[in-house]
């Protein structure tokens, strides 16, 4: 998957967080000053982030301060090359994409919670396509159950006839690129969805702050309690046995969040 800059495009829908409308692009507090500060004192990175500027804006300002400004008309957003065709896997649109896995256990929901969060949207009339990596086939099957379409491990090149030369990440991008919404934790597929411009229901585990790590530049909903007991703990494993942070979000919360991004 090759990344490149593209001009800023307006978001497809208003962004939402916790049921309250917010802007898709956060306000930036003097990113140019932050960039200059990083050039003069790289150890100040933590201080710059805590002062409020978004990470991407600070990075662009850092590049400008180092003598590499953006070209005129380049808004700094990322894009992928045209994504491969994946309708043979997903069927037609529209559909929503839950991605239940996470590399950090504290950011993942229990499978039974994920399955309920598939069941309710399906009962409400939404098509659901559940994605997962090659090591998440069992998890994806449990979450999809009989209600959703499980694609665990099926976004690798070998699974797409005629596309063997494509990287797995590019193929995975084809599924959310044609989705109406992606439902996932603070993990890579949330940012992949943002890259292809798909709204995200971010089941963000508050073990790390959402402000600087949520999906950037697209409409999103941030359901759940960001002040849960695990907040700012930096925990990589579940704070209590069987109770990861995202389990504070109910299936009803997920359904309401999906419908919010679909109708806004």
UniProtKB/TrEMBL annotation:
One GO biological process this protein is involved in is:
lipopolysaccharide core region biosynthetic process
Coiled-coil stretches noted in the UniProt entry, renumbered to this chain: none
Q: Which Pfam families match?
A: Glyco_transf_9
Q: Which domain of life is it from?
A: Bacteria
Glycosyltransferase keyword on record: yes
Keywords, ordered alphabetically = Glycosyltransferase, Transferase
Q: Name one GO cellular component term.
A: cytosol
Alphabetized GO MF terms: ADP-heptose-lipopolysaccharide heptosyltransferase activity
Key word Methyltransferase present:
no
This protein is called what?
Glycosyltransferase family 9 protein
